[in-house]
Amino acid sequence: MPDMSQPRRVLVTGSAGRVGRAAVRALVARGHHVLGFDRVATPGLSATQCVIATLADVEALNRAAIGADCLIHLAAAPDDARYPRGEAPDDGDNFLADLVPSNLVGPYHVLEAARKAKVPRVVLASTGQVIDGHLREQNVPVTVGMLPRPRYLYACTKVFLEALGQVYAHNHGIAVLAARLGWCPRDAGQVEEIRASRRAQDVYFSPGDVGRFFVGVVEAEKLPEYAVVYATSRPTHQLRYDLEPTRKLIGYEPRDAWPTGAEE
Fold first, then answer.
1. Which end of the chain is more exposed for a tag (fewer CB within 10 A), N or C?
2. Per-residue pLDDT tens for 58-76?
3. How many CA atoms lie within 13 A of 156 on its CB side?
4. Best CA proximity match to 218, nearest among 123, 91, 154, 124
């Protein structure tokens, strides 16, 4: 295992997204060499540091993974198109069109690329939606040992993502961290959604804390074969996720709380 405290080569899929930009900015500021992989160019990275492709472009993904010390997988279809589902015929969803290719097939390609390139460390972006049932019943703080209770179809794809990571960790010698990330809003509408919900404010994830979390993951001296962690900013009202394992594994201490950074 290389010394992760030194400048590392980090491949970030979904690097142009909300979480991706925050992670890239912090990693670059720490002196790490970042390669972005997204459908559009990544702000803050030069043209030579951007791979413009989709997860379906297996050859591009395989090439990008070569030489990486850590692969951070953020690319995904971001949520259910319809929740709750309406009555037929107004009951369409994006499962087959978006969730299956991006959130089921895509992670397989990513982990295959990591296996072939012998990437020693992979971070998979999961979501608190996989334990939404516990949150709704106030069974908090939710620990990493509680069984998944997914919100809907998008969350089911993230349960698969976590299981896939566990399989590759156990069978292919990759240290895999499944990170159940809090809510880093992508637009003004999501900022207003968080503003209207105490629970959402408690699982808010500021861009600054996003960056600190991923720097911690990349620079941690050692990770277990496989682990699940939660990552949010500091709760405003009530602790919803158990952040202690995150602190112990990578030394992550959230500094921000809602609404710091929400309007960036």
1. N
2. 999 999 999 999 999 999 9
3. 6
4. 123
Instruction: Give the bridge partners for 175, in sequence order.
Output: 121
* 170/63 Cα distance (integer angstroms): 24
Residue 170, both tokens = 């156990």
Span 175-210, pLDDT tens digits: 999 999 999 999 999 999 999 999 999 999 999 999
Measure CA of the first residue to CA of the last residue in the chain; give whole Å.
36
Tell me the CATH number of domain 9-250, given options 3.30.565.10, 3.50.50.60, 3.30.420.40, 3.40.50.720: 3.40.50.720
Total H helices, total E strands in the chain: 9, 7
